[in-house]
Amino acid sequence: MKKILTIVFICVLLMIIDNTLVPFFAIRGFYPSLLFIFCLFYSIINGSWEGIWIGILSGVLQDLYFINGFGINTFTNMLLCALAGFIGVSIFKEKSLIPIVSCFFMTVIKGILVFSILYIVKMYTSFEHIIYNSLYSVVVSIFMYKRVYRLCQKEYMQRKWSFYDR
User: Fold this and answer.
1) CA distance 120 to 128
2) How confident is the model at residue 62 (pLDDT cuts 50, 70, 90)?
3) Residues 6+ apart with CB under 8 A from 84
4) Please, where are the H alpha helices in the chain?
C-alpha cells in the first residue's frame, strides 16, 4: 500500500510541477514533461505490467490539462510505458545510458503519436515542438534517472513474493 501511495503522490506532485513551475524554465517556449519522464523510467525499472498502470495514471493526470482531446495522453502514455517495460527487461538497469536514450526516442514517438492523432481530428500543431521537447527531456533525464532508480530500490517499493503455511 505504501508503494501505491508513493507512486500516486509522486505522479500528482510532478503533474503540479509540470503545470506550474516547469513553464518558467522553458527554452523558446518548449519544456519537458517531468511526469512522463518519471513514468518511462519507472516502467523501464519495474517492467511493462507496472508500466501500463503508471502510464494510465500519468496519462489521466496529463489529460486533465489537455482540453482539446481527453484520452490522447492516457493512450500514448500507456503504450509507451508498456514498451519501456519491455526495453527494461533486457538491459542493465544500473547503467543510465540506455534508459536516457530510450527516453529520447519514447518522447519523439509520443510527440509523433499525439501530432498524428490531433492531425486526424483536424487540430494542427507544430512538428518542431517534438524535437525540442525530446532534446530538453534528455537533458532533464540525465539528472532524473538515478533518483528514480534509487527510489525503486527502496525496500517498500520492491515486490515481495512469499508463501505462508497455515
Assistant:
1) 18
2) confident
3) 40, 41, 43, 44, 48, 51, 102, 106
4) 2-20, 34-46, 48-63, 72-89, 97-120, 128-152
Whole-prediction pTM value?
0.85
Q: Which is nearest to 105 in space by CA: 117, 94, 97?
A: 97
Cell numbers for 104, please give them: 529520447
| Cα-based distances in Å from 51 to 42, 44, 71, 73 | 7, 8, 17, 14
Could you tell me which of 80, 74, 70, 72 has the C-alpha nearest to residue 42?
80
- 102/138 Cα distance (integer angstroms): 9
Cell digits for 115?
A: 501530432
Residue 36 · residue 62 · CB < 8 Å:
yes
Residue 11 in contact with residue 58, Cβ under 8 Å?
yes
